[in-house]
Write a structure and sequence with these properties.
Layout (H helix, E strand, L loop, with lengths): L8 H5 L20 H24 L3 H4 L9 H10 L1 H24 L4 H14 L5 H5 L5 H19 L1 H13 L3 H18 L3 H18 L9 H19 L6 H14 L6 H27 L14 H11 L5 H18 L1 H4 L3 H13 L15 H20 L1 H13 L7 H15 L6 H19 L3 H9 L13 H7 L6 H24 L1 H4 L8
Helix pairs in contact: 2-5, 4-5, 5-6, 5-19, 6-19, 8-16, 8-18, 9-10, 9-15, 10-12, 11-12, 11-24, 12-14, 13-19, 13-22, 13-23, 14-25, 16-18, 19-22, 20-22, 21-22, 21-23, 21-25, 22-23
Length: 537
């Protein structure tokens, strides 16, 4: 009698080369663990308790000892003059209470992040930390507009499918072997990072393509091998590190630029400033990531390098062919984006800032008759915009109270860190904390809001240029690839079932250590040559 097997209808019809099987909505949703559910339940009460204890109960010496002479920020000094010393000290208590409660809510995800941001804005106004006009105005911050307009421009690529066409063409053109495939995805991620400021959008665009490629090499439908592991983990790494090479690569990069500009007093980091400092390091890290992944962590055997499904690449070619010839709308989308990119890079020649350039591009894209998208085609994640607005308001509150400077000053005094501490020690410690924080926090914006102000305050305390510590910290924002909860792309790609927690931790922690060494080398060399740091040694 022939042996029978139980095969479900889903298994019978599953086609590993069908891109429709890898749409985001078909991937399994990550469920919160028991610990995460308990955190969510306790988050609200803990946030309220933290606020009440700090604002109404605690006596905090370093806040009570604030004087006009201890303040360094012009906004804080002005606010002191408006409120008087006693009220100013109370506003510091309020800012610390709001900050602590917000961190608890963001970390525990007791309520949606955007709702926490709305509570932050309301709290800053009601407690008098900052004037209502200044707090509410953060939704109109130039960086907020740059975020919104970047999504308008990115929507062109999604609607016209020019990004998908480019990715398919590049893989087919240069992916003759596994090495070529890996390098193809690295380049694709870099190119998309120039145009798309949402790392999750990039991951979503590329996911069906690299899932089909993984299936061609025998990794699909629960079957794991090192080609599949590397493809997904390399794309997760490239999605994030590619974004680190461009100021507009993510909203968190733009937030850091805004915080630094506010502290430096009008100095704006330009697109080319960020590009010249960050892109070369991103390229080196991407190459090292490929080497560590494919040669050290998950070496690919010779038999795994051969396609396991005949005609696999032909299916990708059919997918590209089904898109038809390049149409005029796609050409217009590319031209608009290239125009925006050229104007961003040549800002020093024409003097038009990045936000205004994005305005020009978005208006052209939306213009009836000559444009490409209508407003209803534009996918703007307003919950992320509101979250960002709350983060900017926290920054406004910190500047209005000088709280970050006061805390850093108190911590360093208690630790015995004196003014004689060498610059390189501060640099190594701050960059190390910024990287390691990615293991704990699930929001790049939140890490930016905590560690960039700390770097700013440290520079102010020790008399170093703000850029010398804040900018290197900002360059590490995108290192969020070690664990599945570290970022939205990490959570999304973990659901592909191509790797385990131990896989992503092994690869990620090695790359994080390499990144720490890289930023130290960068501080001594490239950042020094560009005038951002005085050199470490």
């Amino acid at each position: 009698m022939a042996e029978t097997t139980n095969v479900t209808p889903e298994e019978q019809v599953f086609d590993p080369l069908d891109m429709n099987n890898y749409k985001v909505e078909k991937l399994p949703k990550m469920q919160k663990s028991g610990f995460e559910r308990w955190m969510a339940r306790l988050g609200g009460p803990l946030a309220i308790l933290a606020f009440v204890l700090i604002y109404w109960v605690a006596n905090i010496g370093f806040l009570d000892n604030i004087t006009a002479e201890s303040l360094t920020g012009t906004k804080a000094i002005k606010r002191l003059g408006e409120l008087g010393l006693d009220e100013f000290i109370r506003s510091n208590y309020a800012m610390l209470a709001i900050f602590a409660a917000a961190i608890v809510l963001w970390v525990t995800e007791a309520i949606p992040n955007y709702l926490t941001s709305l509570l932050v804005i309301l709290g800053v106004v009601l407690t008098g930390v900052a004037p209502q006009k200044e707090a509410f105005a953060q939704l109109g911050h130039p960086v907020m507009w740059l975020n919104i307009l970047s999504f308008v421009l990115a929507s062109m690529l999604v609607k016209t499918k020019v990004a998908k066409r480019f990715a398919l063409w590049f893989v087919l053109k240069f992916g003759k072997n596994t090495r070529g495939i890996f390098f193809s995805f690295i380049i694709i991620n870099l190119v998309l990072s120039m145009f798309i400021s949402a790392t999750t959008v990039k991951a979503t665009i590329l996911l069906p393509i690299f899932m089909v490629v993984a299936a061609i090499f025998g990794a699909s439908n629960g079957n794991r091998n090192n080609v599949g592991r590397n493809l997904v983990l390399q794309n997760l790494f490239a999605v994030n590190i590619g974004a680190s090479g461009f100021m507009t690569g993510s909203g968190a990069n733009l937030l850091a630029v805004s915080l630094i500009a506010g502290a430096v007093g009008g100095y704006n980091i330009s697109y080319t400033d960020w590009l010249s400092a960050a892109l070369p390091m991103a390229l080196i890290l991407l190459f090292l990531g490929w080497f560590v992944g494919t040669c050290v962590c998950f070496p690919i055997k010779k038999e795994e390098q051969k396609p396991q499904i005949e005609g696999g690449m032909e299916r990708l070619r059919e997918e590209l062919k089904a898109m038809g010839k390049v149409n005029f709308e796609e050409i217009k989308a590319v031209l608009i984006f290239l125009g925006v990119l050229v104007l961003w890079v040549t800002k020093e020649w024409h003097g038009i800032d990045e936000t205004t350039v994005a305005f020009i591009g978005a208006i052209v894209a939306l213009m009836p008759g000559i444009g490409i998208v209508k407003w209803n085609d534009v996918d703007i994640p307003w919950h992320l915009m509101l979250f960002s607005a709350g983060a900017y308001v926290l920054g406004t509150g910190l500047n209005a109270t000088d709280l970050h400077v006061t805390i850093v000053d108190s911590v360093f005094n208690n630790l015995g860190i004196t003014a004689d501490t060498p610059y390189w020690v501060l640099y190594v410690v701050l960059t190390g904390f910024m990287l390691l924080s990615a293991l704990v926090f699930s929001s790049k914006n939140m890490r930016t809001m905590i560690f960039v102000p700390i770097a700013i305050a440290t520079a102010q305390k020790f008399g170093y240029p703000i850029m010398s510590l804040a900018f290197p910290v900002a360059l590490l924002i995108e290192h969020v690839y070690v664990l599945p909860f570290n970022s939205k792309p990490a959570a999304l790609l973990y659901t592909t079932n191509h790797y385990s927690w131990s896989d992503t931790f092994k690869f990620g922690i090695i790359m994080m250590a390499i990144a720490w060494v890289m930023i130290i080398i960068w501080g001594e060399t490239v950042l020094n040559w560009l005038g951002f740091t005085p050199g470490l040694f």
